[in-house]
Structure of Nucleoside hydrolase:
Amino acid sequence: MLIRSFLFSCLLFLTAIPMQAQSPLPVILDTDIAGDYDDVGAMTLLHAFADKGEAKILAVISCNAFETTVPTISVLNTYFKRPDIPIGITHKAKPDMDCPQQWAQAIIAKYPHRVRSNKEAEEAVSLYRRILVAQPDHAVTIITIGFFTNLADLLQSGPDQYSPLSGRALVQQKVKALVAMATSVPPGKEKGREYNVYVDTEAARAVFEQWETPITLSPLEVGEQLHTGIPLTKDAAITDSPVKDAFSIALEKDKNTQGRMSWDQTAVLVAIKTPQPWFNERKINLRIEADGSNTLIPGERFTLLELKEGEKLKLQEYIESLMHHQPK
Ligand SMILES: [Ca+2]
């Protein structure tokens, strides 16, 4: 009996080890949601990983000042039963990228949300500092799927009510890694130009030069190979979903029958799951030019993701399946 009890204790101990190893990764998501709807897919992946116990969403912060951004974030957080996740937004008037397909206006009108306007959200840098200071050292992964406005402002921030540290020092102390959907590195070429960089070029340049944690880049060329959303719009098992509505409205307005490119979802995916088994990881350095283009230069500052031959369809199916995730 004693032996059996001892063996049972050992078994409990051994089964406890993997559970400890899988403690949820604390993340802050920085998004320009409204200009495009792959951000909706990315937020769905993040909530799916949170429901699986793999991610803890500390805050969602908008780098886009357009009027629908905060209510849209709140709609999605409320839908996924996390209405109290802190939401931040830049107080700069620009960048201000609108929602041409009007999907954001539609889901705000239809679905409940606790934070009803941009004015009700915290200022972006202040929220970053408040959240970061309360975390263990080198713990937080920041995922950016928009412009670099907030991250540059965070680096340039000074001591405040939350921390005596400069923004650079606070990032160095609290942040584990930055994963960005950004840049364009076409195969065999030295130069590319990508939206998340050129919308706020000065901010991107500041982050690329001054950010001191490991940085992983999912470039334009990865997400544009992965088309998602059409099966979601046809999934009859999903009803009353702002995610399905956003994709249905936007894909129809765009007359898109192939699916939306999945740029932002790739950043969330590799931040939580690591780049394996889907990607090759290539060490590079990049210089941001005045026109917002990026040029390859010698160095190993960034880890660039490159989609592996033969993994495209498997990854596309995996992202699509995560986008069908419904609240628990
Ligand atoms: Ca985006």
